[in-house]
Design a protein that fits this description.
Alpha-Beta Plaits
């Protein structure tokens, strides 16, 4: 399991024109089962994605396809972790 921490390194007026393409990319990854949830940071300095990619190499290849990365608009930090405890509704994550 991975936490993808996305931080804008360009002003929002440079990021915003690429937002629709970024969201299309994110939806495609959800459809492929690679992303589990995502959202905007508060305050809006970037976003967070939780990914169930098979491994770090696969995730790195996926991230490269993000329009935000292609246009050098963001810094991306990835943290890998193993789910050990959840609420009952998220028990399925323990097997990922």
């Amino acid at each position: 399991m991975f936490i993808v921490n996305i931080t804008y390194k360009k002003p929002m007026d440079e990021v915003e024109p690429h937002m629709a393409a970024h969201m299309d990319f994110v939806r495609e990854q959800f459809d492929k089962g690679r992303f589990l949830f995502s959202g905007k940071k508060v305050p809006r300095t970037g976003g967070i994605i939780v990914s169930s990619a098979d491994d770090r190499q696969q995730l790195d290849e996926i991230i490269k396809q993000d329009p935000f990365c292609e246009h050098n608009l963001v810094d991306v930090d990835v943290l890998e972790f193993s789910v050990s405890t959840t609420c009952s509704e998220l028990d399925f994550l323990k097997n990922m």
